[in-house]
Amino acid sequence: MKDLVISYLEKSAALKKDVAENQAEVVSSMIDVITSCYRKKGKVLVMGNGGSASDAQHFAAELVGRFCLEREALPAIALTANTSTMTAIANDYGYEDVFVRQVQAYLEDKDVVLGISTSGSSKNVIKALTFAKDRGVPVLGLTGLPGDPLCSLSDHALRVPSVHTSLVQEVHIAVLHIICKVVEENLFR
Length: 189
Description:
The protein is α/β, with parallel strands linked by helices. It has one domain: Glucose-6-phosphate isomerase like protein, domain 1 (Rossmann fold, 3-Layer(aba) Sandwich). Helices cover 57% and strands 12% of the residues. The protein contains eight helices and five strands. A five-stranded parallel beta sheet has the order 2-1-3-4-5, sandwiched between helices. Helix 1 (2-22) packs across helix 8, helix 2 crosses helix 8 and helix 3 runs parallel beside helix 8 (165-188). The mean pLDDT is 97.
């Protein structure tokens, strides 16, 4: 059992190291886009399914509440958090529309839209990102392998080099924490 624990943790650490060595610039670009959004008094709309839905809610909570610094609240909406809205849209239109309908309702020119999909092919995420992209709003993506079409739609996309959902999600939450930390530093230090 100990060998399995060590092996899993080493795989997780190796993926984070790979992202640190090869995609730090992508994360920096995402930080710049989100910082600029907040300087323009915009908001972040974020979405995903399953574990990525939890990551979306976690990220929004860190921005609205706080990550490390005592500061003013930053507007962020996890499009996964309102079950009444999601189930009404799914019932009336279909599950593929649960995010795009909300993006249509909330999106403003100064906002940023972040889609999280470990495969990169979640139809409801892709539909919402396509809508935002067509409106000229910055689109960010977090994915794993294979990563498309999310990567193709995103202005900046982090593609974790793995097909293992749990490992991809571990890197995603680490990256989201880094984004929170640096955005706070940029805006409030």
